[in-house]
Amino acid sequence: MIKLYWSPRSRSFSAIWLLEESGLPYERVLTDISTGAQKSPEFLKINPMGKVPALTDGDAQLAEAAAICAYIADRYPETKLAPAATDPKRARYLQWLFFSPSCIEPALIQLFTKLEVPTSTAAWGSAAQVFDVLDAELQKAPWILGDQFSVADIAIGAGLNFAVRVFKMVPPRPSFEAYIGRCVARPAFQRAEKIAAG
């Protein structure tokens, strides 16, 4: 049985959305970060970083939202949440799946802290570049892979929803509003929102 270790109002949202989208049976294990539950010895065995989300699936255990997305999509191909390893779209899917933690999240930290980092040394370039590139990409098709929804959309959609609508750290753009609207309209997103609200 898949077990998702999560906490309300946290980065757990994307993993909850993923599992709701997948249709797979899973158990949610509340790991309330407001009480320090993520620092318990039991939880640190699952994720030594002491962060949620984390997941166990039989003998497999892992953390990091994008890794959880990749794992579920690959381990359970019947969910059709990722292109097959032999599909040429796989390269594009992987690029955008990891764009969220490697570009969107650092860009948000840069905006929040007003941190000045030379674009030549910042792995994400700059916050402006991240959101300009994403804007251009989202103008091309309904989803990252064209008409096909994938876990890359979960990673990008969750991050963009928080950045634009929840925390209002990134000004809305027409492509962002349309894309977030498509994400929010998905029944699995709506179920995940209710769960994640606690």
TrEMBL record:
Entry EC no(s): 2.5.1.18
Annotated transmembrane regions: none
PROSITE patterns (alphabetical): GST_CTER, GST_NTER
Superkingdom per UniProt: Bacteria
Enzyme kind, highest EC tier: transferase
Keyword line: Transferase
Gene3D superfamilies with a match to the protein in the record: 1.20.1050.10, Glutaredoxin
UniProt entry tagged with the keyword Ligase: no
Example of a GO MF term: glutathione transferase activity
Xref: InterPro entries: Glutathione-S-Trfase_C-like (IPR010987), Glutathione-S-Trfase_C_sf (IPR036282), Glutathione_S-Trfase (IPR040079), Glutathione_S-Trfase_N (IPR004045), Thioredoxin-like_sf (IPR036249)
Domain GST N-terminal: 1-80
Keyword Magnesium among UniProt keywords: no
Domain GST C-terminal stretches: 86-198
UniProt-listed PANTHER family: GLUTATHIONE S-TRANSFERASE GSTA, GLUTATHIONE S-TRANSFERASE-RELATED
Name the UniProt record assigns to this protein: Glutathione S-transferase
Species this chain originates from: Bradyrhizobium elkanii
